[in-house]
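Sequence of Amidohydrolase family protein (Nonomuraea roseola).
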Amino acid sequence: MTFDVVISGGRVLDGTGAPAFRADIGITGERITAVGRLEGADAAQVIDASGRFVAPGFIDCHAHGDALVFDPEVQLAALRQGVTTFVLGQDGLSYAPGSAATVNYATRYFAAVNGVHPLLDGAASVADLLAGYDRATALNTAYLLPHGTIRYDVMGASPDAASASELTQMLAHVEKGLADGAVGLSSGLEYLPGRNASSAELAALCRPLGALPYVTHMRAYGTGAGVGMAEVVEIARSSGAAMHVSHLHGPADVLLPLVESALAHGVDLSFDTYPYLRGSTILAMIVLPPQVPAAEVDRALDVLESSSLADWWPTLDGLWPRLTVSHAPGEEWAEGLTIVEAAGRKGVSPSEFCRRLLVDTRLEAGCVVGRPDEGPEGEESVRRVLRHPAHTGGSDGIYVGGHPHPRGWGAFARFLGTHVRELGDWTWEEAVVHLASHPARRFGLGDRGLLRQGLAADVVVIDPVKVADLATYAAPRTPATGISEVLVSGVRVLSDGALTGRTPGRALRPTS
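Predicted 3D structure, token representation.
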């Protein structure tokens, strides 16, 4: 027997949930061609996995690497956690499909989340976007059709309900995007213009999805998650589509009954979480009231420069200590400081500092936000929610800014080091189901997520003793440890913990 690569001596976690077993993995080209005892086999490369686990590459179900997946630092951050695939197009906002004006809007409005795509210039289709990712990065990418981008392309920033003609145009975008290879449809119902959509509009756009999921950043989370989940159930009933809730967070006593109720009503439901209590997003979404037209920057800045929000700012006094500046172009000195700390350095009130920051960055500022449930009860809720069988892993990684949330560098390593090894929330076998095989099934990536003969050779080698997240809120850009060997499509992209410079990542399309 002759192979290009043999990974020898490890204990295989194949993704089925079956107990780990001692086996070698033989790889030829992009595929796994043997799983078993391969003593005496010839191979161009042999990776000794003795004392370690061998698992399928993990799929990050919610990552904001749409532009920054080309950045070697981001590739290293993911691969050092065993992540070999990013699911992009999240929260209803990304670069395609749309005209040049739409691409410009999505880029500007979500600049603190997705950044600026280095290759796009003008209008972009899903096919264009996927072609740019293919074999241009060490990671695989899969793409969700972003509802907000599609709505903006058809309706601009209009808050109105979609007309029959506009809905027809949006449906055409969905059908074309699915034909181009999208793995589902996403929405961001706390962002613009997505929050202007009705559940009827969303359900209509879900009907062409078939087995692929509708992935939603709901209208409400935390103690208000019932509002968001009720809409999820309504859309599922109306469209028949599978549902996937993004970054489900809040008290477990609220969330888990909602999940169980949806499942009991026949909803094909899954969700992702990240194992942290703080979130991260654009500052404008957190602090501005609905009447500010944040989708139209110049109009929004006029409002911010006026006195019309004088009665609004005092209502946010309890929020300021929970906000840390993550991205502040032109005001980088403030990155890593809370709004209160930064305001103190400027000698102004927190509300005045925040107002000026939004104006000076033209709404581009980003933040890390502490949730009200932060503390022991919140940690226990995280643990209970991630143990649910409908759970999948997602980092919600944002790689923009000088002081981002550490989840992009640590979420998957934290799942393994903290929640498997230290706390026992999952077994190692269960972890691979949550982080690889379940996500692959959910997004129709039938040749990923398992270590099985004939499937794509996305393979990670895990040291169960050493794997851990090292990124913190103080030092967020710190790569994880304990995963030093990773292959993507049979090519070694991480060797001895360092990037090899190879870029075999594929733009994935649904296979089942």
